Amino acid sequence: MSNLPKVIVKDKEDIRTNHINWDEYFMSIAILSSLRSKDTSTKVGAAIVSDEHKVLSLGYNGMPIGIDDSKIPWAREGASELDTKYPYVCHAELNAILNTERRLKGSTLYVTLFPCNECAKAVIQAGIKKVIFLDDKYHDKTYSIASRKLFEMAGVETSQYLGRVPLIDFGDVKYEL
Ligand SMILES: O=c1[nH]c(=O)n([C@H]2C[C@H](O)[C@@H](COP(=O)(O)O)O2)cc1CO
Ligand SMILES: [Zn+2]
Questions:
Q1: Which family is annotated (predicted)?
Q2: In a mutational test of the pocket of ligand 1, which residue from 113, 132, 137, 140 has the highest number of ligand atoms less than 8 Å from its CB?
Q3: What is the pTM of this model?
C-alpha cells in the first residue's frame, strides 16, 4: 500500500470543475506558506503571482534572517514593547517582496491577512497592482484604515477572497476554518 495521496475528483468528465481555479490555487499556496511561521497567534502567508499565473515569490511572517529567533520573544504583550514580537517580526508580504529579485510590476499578491500600512507601502513601491486577502480581522485598526487609503490613492485593487480553502493538516500544525 502506497502512502501517496490519491486525487479524488467528483466529476472526472467535467474539465471545468475537476481542478481548482487560479485563485484557489494561489490562496492555498499562501495558506500553506503561513504554516512555516513560528508565530503561534497569527501565521500569515503571502504569494506573489505574475499576470501569466506564475508564482514569483513566497513569504511568511518571521524573524529577520540570521537572527536567532529563540532569543526573540513571540509574545503579544510584555513589560515593554521591546519584550514583544512586534518591533522585530518581518511581515509575510514584505518577506515575499524581498525574497525575490524578479520584477513584481503588475503582479498580484495573495495574502492570508489584509496588509498593514507598512506592507501596503512596500506593495505599492514594488508595483504590485492587485491584493487578494483572506482574513480581515484587523479591519478597524488605524494601520488597516491607512492601508486602504494608500491602496486606493495608489490605484492598487483589493478584494477579499471568499472562495474555497483547503484543509491542511500536518497533525501538530494545521489550517482549518
Ligand atoms: O500585514 C501584516 N502581515 C503580517 O505578517 N503580520 C504578522 C505580524 C505578526 O507576526 C502577526 C500578527 O500578530 P497578532 O495577530 O498576534 O497581533 O502577523 C501582521 C500584519 C498586519 O496585521
Ligand atoms: Zn505588514
A1: Belongs to the cytidine and deoxycytidylate deaminase family.
A2: 113
A3: 0.96
